[in-house]
Structure formats: C-alpha cells, structure tokens
Amino acid sequence: MHTTKISSLSKMLLFIGALFLIISLFVPIWSIYLDAPQYPEGLSLKIWANAIAGDVDIINGLNHYIGMKTLHTKDFIEFAILPYIIVGFAILFALTALMGKKKLLYIIFTAFVLFGIVAMADFYRWEYDYGHNLDPNAAIKVPGMAYQPPLIGFKQLLNFGAYSIPSIGGWLFISAGLLSLTAVLKETKFLKKFSKSKSTLAVLLPMIVLFSSCNNQKAEPISLNKDACTFCKMSIADGKFGAEIITKKGRVFKFDDLVCMNGYVSENNATEVKKYFIADYTKDNQLIDATTAFFVQHEKMRSPMGGNIAAFATKEEAEKTATEYKTALLNWGTLNKQISKNVQ
Q1: Which of 55, 209, 258, 264 shows the greatest Cβ crowding within 10 Å of its Cβ?
Q2: Same domain, residue pair 107 and 25
Q3: Please, which residues have CB within 8 angstroms of residue 16's CB and are 6 or more apart in sequence?
C-alpha cells in the first residue's frame, strides 16, 4: 500500500542531520592555509558561520603590499544571515522528521542542495573579487598576476602555497546533506533491493568514508629531482630514503633523509605534526607510515644526509636486512629518540 510517510530510519537520519547543522555553528566551516618559506608554520584563515578568524591581521598586512582589499567580518553580509539560514535548515530537518511527510523531505533536500550550490558560487565570487580587483597603486605589482585562492585544493600564489579545504563545520554540513540524501534514496525505494542489514550499511557507509578520509590523510608523492628538502634545501633524489610530514593544519613538508625530517621537527613544534611518512627501502619512492615501520641503521646504507637509516614496511624484510648487516632492528620510538638527541 502506498504511503506518504517516511520511515523511522529516515526520521533518525534527519534528526542527526539537524544536530550536525547546529554543531556547525560553533566550529569553523572552511579553512584557507597560506604556506611560505618565511612562515614555516603557515598562516590560516578560519571562516566561521558568523566571522573570519585566524591570522587575519598578518594576512591583511601582506595583502596591503599586493593591493588586495583587507578582510573584515563586517564587510560581508553573508556572516549576518548565514547563521539564521543554518538554524532554519536545522529546524526544517527536525520538523520534517516530526511530521514525517515524504513530499516535505524531497522539498527540503532540494532546497538544501540548491543552497549549497549558491553558497559555493558566492564563495567563489568573493575569492575572485578579492584576488582580481587590486589597488593599481600597490607597492608590489606583477603584470597579469591574480591572487585568487582556490575554491578547494591547492594553488601557488607567488611564493605562497594556498590550501582551501572544508573545516569541521564544513564536513558536518556535508554530512547533513549526505544523511538527507540517504533518506531520500530510501524513501524513493532506491535502497529497496538491499536487505535490512545491507540497507543500514549503505546508510552508514557515506559517513564512515567521509570521516575516515578526514582522519587518515594519505602521503603526498615526492617528485624526485624536483621537490626540495624542507630542512637542508637540497633536491630530493633518492627514492629509498625520502621522508614527509603532514601537520595538523594539513601542510606537507618533504625531506631527503630521516635525519632532516627529525631536524626540522626538533626545531619546530613537534606537537603540530599529524602524520609521519618514510620511504620503503625495498621499493622506489613509496611512502609508508613511519610510526609503524621497522628500521635498520648501518653505514653501508649511505643515505643522502648521512643518517644511513633504511625503513621497511614489514618486520620480516627489516630482520633480513639487519641480519645481513649484522646490526639491530629499530622501531620508531627508539630511533626517533636517538636521532633527536644527535640533532640537538
């Protein structure tokens, strides 16, 4: 029998989506990171639902030299209305769950998607305006140069690398959209072919994949003979000894030797490092998680900066090499302490 009511599962998804939208008001929605040699830890803009935060004053000072307009929360009408729009959608999500009408679900989902498209278009327009409409009397002028950050992803702007990615609030917003999409798919019988257990898995999978991708950032491949070591500035040429860190801000720093990586971390804030990667000695330029790798140190390894340390993905491979060179097997904790002491 045809019904106009949505299922209990769809109601639960909408309530969770409403909760995610409310939480997004209290955390940054979007982040733009600027990375340059003179700012090794980078600069950041944190875009909240009602304000711009982060290193705003420093970035405004830099923008002054290239003729960009300064950034001020009061100059954006979006910050005055966006919190109300988000609260409005949260209420509509909850009301749809309480009323349980399919037609209302479809209308709210369509409106939410359209709002997302309009919001991203407005964000692009804002970036374009600030990146292209420059003061002709600026101290630094590069003919044909624009300073528009990427809508999402990475872009090189003179000596600054600009990263634009969703922040916690943005991922919550996307998750709310995925939850409502799952409800729509279920109510349109798209998921009918799945069994109850498989249907539940299909509902949860988008969120699992989404949050896993946020928390398990993969290594960025090293371009041999092109990328330079962040610490010693030499070109990274040997794919058996390269290393890399990713900070909590999402910045990637590459090194030609484990010693250089530890030297850089020792001189900077180690608590800001999110991921450590090291090249697998048995493969050419393939990075693995340094914290779970096994290490062998011997003078015959001859790494670029004299660390002479090889990393292995498996204990068996490391033990084989350690036996060959008649030396001990090392783990990340022991090795890291040893190198840090030598660097200091």
Answers
A1: 258
A2: yes
A3: 179
CA 9 to CA 203: how far, in whole Å? 9
Q: Looking at the domain assignment, is residue 304 inside a domain? A: yes
User: Are residues 188 and 39 part of one domain?
Assistant: yes
Plot region of 184 (φ>0 → left; ψ -120 to 50 → alpha; else → beta): alpha
- Whole-angstrom Cα distance, residue 282 to residue 301? 12
How many domains, in total, are found in the chain? Answer: 2
| Upper half-sphere CA count for residue 314 (Cβ side, 13 Å) | 5
pLDDT at position 252 is 86
Helix, strand, coil fractions of the chain, as percent rounded to 5:
50, 20, 30
45 DSSP β-pair partners = 32, 54
**pLDDT given for residue 182 in this prediction:** 93
Q: What pLDDT, on the 0 to 100 scale, is given for residue 289? A: 92
What is the rounded distance in angstroms from the CA atom of residue 343 to the CA atom of residue 338? 9
pTM for this prediction? 0.62
Q: Measure the CA–CA gap between 37 and 166, rounded to whole angstroms.
A: 24
Q: Which two tokens stand for residue 283?
A: 């493969």
Counting beta carbons within 10 angstroms of the beta carbon of residue 73, is it exposed (0 to 12), middle (13 to 18) or buried (19 or more)?
Answer: middle
Strands 160-166 and 153-157: what pairing?
A: antiparallel
DSSP H/E element including 32: strand 30-36
Distances, alpha carbon 95 to alpha carbons 15, 91, 100, 257, 302, in Å = 9, 6, 8, 57, 66
Helix H or strand E encompassing 20: helix 8-23
Report the candidate in 92, 89, 88 with the shortest Cα–Cα distance to residue 101: 92
DSSP letters, 70-105, are PP-GGG-THHHHHHHHHHHHHHHHHHHHHH-BHHHH
**Phi, psi (rounded to 5 degrees) for 166:** -65, 145
With a cut of 50, which residues of the chain have pLDDT below it?
1, 195, 197, 208, 211-212, 214-215, 343-344
